[in-house]
Design goal:
This protein is mostly helical. Helices cover 63% and strands 7% of the residues. The chain contains five helices and two strands, in the order H-H-H-E-E-H-H. It has a two-stranded antiparallel sheet. Strand 1 and strand 2 form a beta hairpin. The longest helix has 27 residues.
Length: 118
């Protein structure tokens, strides 16, 4: 666990990571709130808060009496969200900086292609 970030967010990000890397497939049951709480040695309410973030985002859903499951299309939604966040955090600033340096589209594309091929 990372001390710089609320635990419930870390729980949500951990589950997102497992969905993105394929450890938790669509329609797969996720660990119970109590199992998450016991594993991380946290209050179940904290684990529930993290899971509810993913429920609210449509990544997880509840089957009454059974548990939480990964929603169909969850991985695609998470990838789309992460790509948009990547563009906001990295691509837009890169393009702004390239414009400031007078780089052309072609020059920037060539630089990126070289880095991608390293």
């Amino acid at each position: 666990m990372d001390d710089g970030q609320p635990i419930f967010l870390q729980i949500a990000q951990q589950l997102e990571g497992e969905i993105l890397d394929g450890s938790l497939g669509e329609e797969t049951q996720v660990p119970s709130i109590n199992a998450l709480a016991a594993f991380h040695r946290i209050n179940p309410a904290t684990a529930l808060k993290g899971v509810n973030l993913l429920v609210d985002a449509g990544v997880l859903y509840k089957r009454r009496g059974i548990g939480m499951f990964v929603a169909a299309g969850a991985r695609a939604r998470l990838l789309e969200q992460r790509r948009a966040e990547f563009a906001d955090a990295h691509v837009r600033p890169l393009v702004d900086r390239a414009r400031g340096l007078g780089l052309t589209h072609s020059e920037l594309t060539d630089m990126i292609a070289k880095e991608m091929n390293r």
